[in-house]
């Protein structure tokens, strides 16, 4: 068990190190010089000696490997470098933007889970055949809808036609509704699909017939026996859903003008601000790796059958 | 995106029929046929120039302009029709990049020494760890804006999926008896790979390519919407929707109709690839 944990941890760290190294060298050998871009303009009136001094103070005149080492230790201690556009510290930019995005993605995720459960349950236990069929058709439809278009259609319907959510002067909570609804749709789709198929699979297993024969009601069966088993496969796509959440944040924060990490990403690309994008890419890779690590380690804890396999 | 697609194919196996003649599949064929012919011969379907002012601006859909006109008086339907070429060629390029690079990596990884395999698979792990939109944005920041660069960026995000699938196929096929027999009867590594292993591992990879096509259309239009694709007068679906964002309150047709065409195209592509997959599994 412990050797398994250590091996997975080692793999995760290796992936992160490679991701960091790759982005560092891409940034380093990219044509263009961040120092010149920021301080070299004639309006600032800096002499070339002064620019060289700035360069030295930032460590940009050191050999590549020294710079790499400085950047790596900086990342590990929370210093993520400086924006090539504004010169602001990337860590402080991220700290300011994070709460906005965290609120948005958490709401979207919760909404997606509720939506997925509704679809899964109605499509399996719905009273009418037509309702079950409609529900089963929803996930493939949901996955074909682009978030940016859905967000605009939602604004059209809820803000302009029905007047339910004000476009200007919405409260914090009101402003969350439409973007998180837009993000949750493509996330609910694969989740619902996995739930549906694993509920189907668990329901057809012999132990369910035994429990039912012992007199358990459908509700008891669902909550006590089916759900726990059906949830496990859903965990495996957790990392994937994180990627979708990030993509959704980039698109909706741009549309709704929210100043979060998604908007920061969009602007970093527009300004070719590599240090900012590098920090965002490396941090999301770290989050993805961390989520998958937790899921992998959690799996044997939740499923006793796997615990045995790992020990052997 | 890609792994969501694979998840779908697995779970749909149980419920979809095997016939390619089901009404929903025929509908999907029809819809895709229309889009493809728009891309091939746009002039047959509309007489309006997609980038010229052809009438009063902001007209609601009517008998003359089925999708209405936009803020500069361009015909929206003809822009959607000409836009099909932009979107479909982009998606085709993206899938080609992912397919060629990914399959080459997977085959190499599955058929070479363990150290090569390890290195290649760690690269795939890194590609998978970066959320696909962020990965394509990183590529765009390096290459610059434009239709081709966006297609390459989207293609790179699908390399990992192709590499993993083709590697597992090659490993699986290499263990089968007929490959052992081919080696046993004197076949060199190259001939066995080319004549036995590759043809037998290609089918599932082609099915993945079909699935990736729909997801590439979505990603390309998203990047176009964010403004990283073709420059403004170009009729690209994502860009069209971005340009008409300011008119949501007054002109619903500008965003709604091109978006519907986009959704129907992606939905049809997905439906077709599920049908092909289901037929193959049956």
From TrEMBL, chain A:
* Record-annotated membrane-spanning stretches: 12-30, 102-129, 141-164, 176-196, 230-256, 276-299
Q: Which residues form the ABC transmembrane type-1 domain?
A: 98-299
Q: Where in the cell is it found?
A: Cell membrane
Pfam family of this protein, just one? BPD_transp_1
Q: What is the protein name for this chain?
A: ABC transporter permease
Q: Which CDD domains match?
A: TM_PBP2
Give the source's domain of life in one word.
Bacteria
What would be one Gene Ontology cellular-component term for the protein?
Answer: plasma membrane
Which processes are annotated in GO (biological process)? transmembrane transport
UniProtKB/TrEMBL annotation, chain B:
Q: Check the record and name the CDD domains matching this protein.
A: TM_PBP2
* Subcellular location per the Swiss-Prot or TrEMBL entry: Cell membrane
Please name the SUPFAM superfamilies in this protein's record.
Answer: MetI-like
**Membrane-spanning regions, if any?**
20-41, 88-108, 120-142, 148-165, 205-230, 250-270
InterPro entries named among the record's database cross-references: BP-dependent_transpt_permease, MetI-like, MetI-like_sf
- What's the family? Belongs to the binding-protein-dependent transport system permease family.
How is this protein named in the record?
Answer: ABC transporter permease
What is the organism field in this record? Nesterenkonia salmonea
Query: What does the record give as the organism's lineage?
Result: Bacteria, Bacillati, Actinomycetota, Actinomycetes, Micrococcales
